[in-house]
Design a protein that fits this description.
Elements: H1 13-19, H2 24-40, H3 50-57, H4 61-71, H5 82-94, H6 97-108, H7 118-132, H8 146-153, H9 172-181, H10 183-189, E1 214-216, H11 230-237, E2 247-253, H12 254-257, H13 261-268, E3 275-281, E4 286-291, E5 308-313, E6 317-319, E7 329-332, E8 343-349, E9 352-358, E10 364-365, E11 382-383, E12 385-394, E13 398-399, E14 405-406, H14 409-422
Keywords: Calcium
InterPro entries: EF-hand-dom_pair, EF_Hand_1_Ca_BS, EF_hand_dom, TLDc_dom
GO molecular function: calcium ion binding
């Protein structure tokens, strides 16, 4: 009879290789997920349809279409097989940093023309705000309006001039640079194949990159005067760990409390945790810094490497410490020496800070600084503040697998790093 074994189609070698990235239990979980979604697709358990896929993962519009196209290996047959799901998740969630970022870079090409242009990135950011984060603003400041989308587009470089492309496009290095300056977008784009409500213990607040802090103010504060809108808080939060993204309380607002250094210090004196300082100057630029330590009197720089600078308008960028020096946070109060300028600031060197507001709160400056690798944050070096705002960050507890509080810095670091490893971010903060 010869070989009596049934003749079957050879297994896709990509699937065989991808399967090795998962444990037996993980593969069983993926099979259960596939069977459930295939049943909803009414496909005789053969495949997942685009509508069921997009509904389950909460991906809609051009971004949802593009993700389905990539997961099905660009076959265009509208059939997502079990093999497709395993190969995509192995690459996107368990691959090397290069594997993951190449997948995300391809995902941004929502037009499918092999180029990532400004229009592609615009479609992705609109989808993030409208369909994934679902930010709603009662003050008629729509998340998807061109202004808020543009600040993220303005942070990107489009350095490629390709024949046949109707607009300038991103190189892969442009993309990686944008990811560094927009870490919230990078985290979220690296976690889209996790269901929005996964129930995983370390993702209790949803996908990495999806959490927006609760912005708490007193009832008599008019929301329209606030600089920190939800989209800005999401952007800043991309550089923070999960337990720093719970409640942010407004401690000081110059339109309510007056442009006064003493009032500022008095209002924040009872808050012993980190804070977010935001400045809008008379040029209309909005920027600031994350202070990891309380604002307290020092004759020299202090703080730690959790400090960073950010821009919010006209572009959205994060600037983390480079390690060039430890001139991180500055708070000088009632010093009489010209060598110790009274006021608050971040980075740079004395009298040449990354950003600085004098003790009169009526002027300051911003210079390019090696501390954070940041440029001048405004139109000119001189700052004339129009609004100054400070938010206190309430650090929540980190829950372990059994909901036990893990309070040590080392344990919190391990949990944050575990989360980042899941989306390929643990070693991508350069």
């Amino acid at each position: 009879m010869g070989n009596s074994e049934s003749q079957s189609v050879p297994t896709d070698p990509r699937f065989v290789s991808a399967s090795r990235a998962f444990t037996h239990h993980e593969l069983e979980d993926l099979r259960s997920l596939f069977d459930s979604l295939a049943a909803k697709s009414q496909s005789n358990a053969q495949y997942i349809s685009p509508s069921v896929f997009q509904s389950y993962f909460g991906l809609h519009g051009p971004l949802g279409d593009r993700m389905f196209h990539l997961v099905t290996q660009e076959r265009k047959d509208q059939h997502l097989t079990f093999e497709d799901l395993v190969v995509a998740k192995a690459t996107y969630e368990k691959g090397t940093r290069d594997d993951i970022e190449e997948f995300i870079f391809r995902l941004l090409d929502v037009n499918g023309d092999k180029f990532v242009g400004r229009s592609d990135l615009e479609s992705v950011m609109i989808s993030i705000f409208k369909d994934i984060l679902c930010i709603k603003d009662n003050e008629a400041r729509s998340s998807s309006d061109q202004g808020i989308v543009n600040i993220f587009l303005n942070a990107a470089n489009f350095s490629m001039h390709e024949e046949g492309c109707t607009e300038e496009s991103m190189s892969f290095e442009d993309f990686r640079s944008w990811c560094t300056h927009a870490p919230s977008a990078r985290k979220l784009l690296g976690s889209l194949l996790m269901p929005p409500d996964s129930g995983i213990w370390y993702l209790v607040s949803g996908r990495p990159g999806s959490q927006i802090p609760n912005l708490l103010t007193s009832n008599d504060i008019d929301p329209s005067i606030l600089l920190l809108r939800k989209e800005y808080a999401w952007h800043i939060g991309g550089a923070l760990s999960q337990h720093e993204l719970e409640d942010w309380m407004l401690l000081y607002h110059s339109s309510v409390n007056g442009l006064s250094f003493n009032t500022f210090l008095g209002n924040i004196s009872n808050h012993q945790g980190p804070s977010v300082l935001i400045i809008k100057d008379k040029e209309g630029y909005i920027y600031g810094g994350y202070a990891s330590q309380p604002w307290e009197r020092h004759a020299d720089f202090y703080g730690d490497l959790k400090c960073f600078l950010f821009q919010l308008n006209p572009k959205a960028s994060i600037f983390r410490p480079t390690g060039a020096n430890h001139n991180l946070q500055w708070c000088a109060i009632n010093f009489s020496s010209a060598d110790i300028p009274n006021g608050i600031g971040f980075g740079g060197r004395v009298s040449h800070y990354g950003v600085f507001i004098s003790a009169n709160f009526d002027q300051g400056h911003t210079f390019a600084c090696s501390t954070f690798g940041s440029p001048c944050l405004s139109k000119t070096n001189r700052i004339l503040p129009e609004v100054i705002e400070c938010w206190g960050v309430t650090q929540g507890t980190v829950l372990g697998k059994n909901d036990a509080v893990k309070g040590t810095i080392l344990e919190r670091f391990k949990e944050d790093r575990h989360m980042l490893n899941m989306v390929g971010l643990a070693n991508s903060s350069e």
